[in-house]
Amino acid sequence: MSKQIVYTEQAPAAIGPYSQAVKMNGILYVSGQIATELAAQGDIRAETQQVMKNIGAILRAADMDYANVLKATIFVKDLNNFVAINEVYGSFFTTDYPARETVEVARLPRGVNVEISVIAM
């Protein structure tokens, strides 16, 4: 039962005292991913696309892919963006969809509009 820290240069480095992901007993816990470079542009689809690509890079670093995702949590600054986020998010899954919740929040790190974390196995 050893804990493995998962890191890839293909996704943004942690901006605080946490890891991109931690794997233990075959379960991967991916920290919330953001796309700071796209947040200011106001294109929620592009921002969500980059967040999902970041997640994909971390999944690959753990020898997994989107099919391994069991659960996702989406934090969004404006729930009016739900449809656009949902369309982009859904395009990354070709098999059964994971469990998920979407929560509107007042603020997110670095002024982003969306943050997504996942649990995979």
Automatic annotation (TrEMBL):
One of its GO terms (molecular function) is deaminase activity. It comes from the Bacteria. SUPFAM superfamilies: YjgF-like (SSF55298). One of its GO terms (cellular component) is cytosol. Transmembrane segments: none annotated. It holds the Pfam family Ribonuc_L-PSP. Belongs to the RutC family. This is RidA family protein.
